[in-house]
Amino acid sequence: MINEIIMSDREAFYSKLKSQLEDTSSFPTKYLYKFIVPTDGKQVDEVQSLFNSGGAVISTKNSRTGKYVSVSIHLTVKSSDEVISYYKKAELIKGIISL
């Protein structure tokens, strides 16, 4: 039951995001992804390898305490579906927070 609620909330979020992207963007467009990941694992490497193939410009910044890393990715995307596809792949990275 809880998983069903989480899945429907997630699908509603992506449906709303798709609609907003299509209303406000002309594709192809440069899109900014921002994530926060813990520094205690390989999450930064996982985020970078997820986006590296698309010619992304990736920058990182450590938090003041050093427990987290902010990862910003500028990537040219062809459609709202491509934007959402990257978010769905990123969800699988342990401890990631999308901003």
Structure, explained:
The protein is of the alpha+beta class. The chain has a single domain, classed as 2-Layer Sandwich (Alpha-Beta Plaits). The chain is 44% helix and 28% strand. The chain is built from 3 helices and 4 strands; from the N terminus they run H-E-H-E-E-H-E. The chain has helices at residues 2-24, 43-52, 80-90; strands at 29-38, 57-62, 68-77, 97-98. A 4-stranded antiparallel sheet has the order 2-3-1-4. Strand 2 (57-62) and strand 3 form a beta hairpin. Helix 1 (2-24) runs antiparallel to helix 3. The longest helix is centred in the N-terminal third of the chain and has 23 residues, at 2-24. The chain is globular and about 40 Å long. The model is unreliable at 1-5 (pLDDT under 50).
What is the second-level CATH architecture?
A: 2-Layer Sandwich
Shape: globular
The order of strands across the largest sheet is 2-3-1-4
Q: Overall pLDDT, averaged?
A: 89
How large a portion of the residues is in β-strands, by DSSP E? 25-35%
Number of helices: 3
Total strand segments: 4
The helix/strand order is: HEHEEHE
> Which residues sit in consecutive blocks of at least 5 with pLDDT less than 50?
1-5
The largest pleated sheet is described as:
4 strands, antiparallel
Rg, rounded, reads: 14 Å
> Distance N terminus to C terminus?
27 Å
Secondary-structure content class: alpha+beta
Count of structural domains: 1
What is the fourth-level CATH superfamily?
ACT domain
Summarize the structure.
With 99 residues, this protein is an alpha+beta fold. Helix content is 44%, strand content 28%.
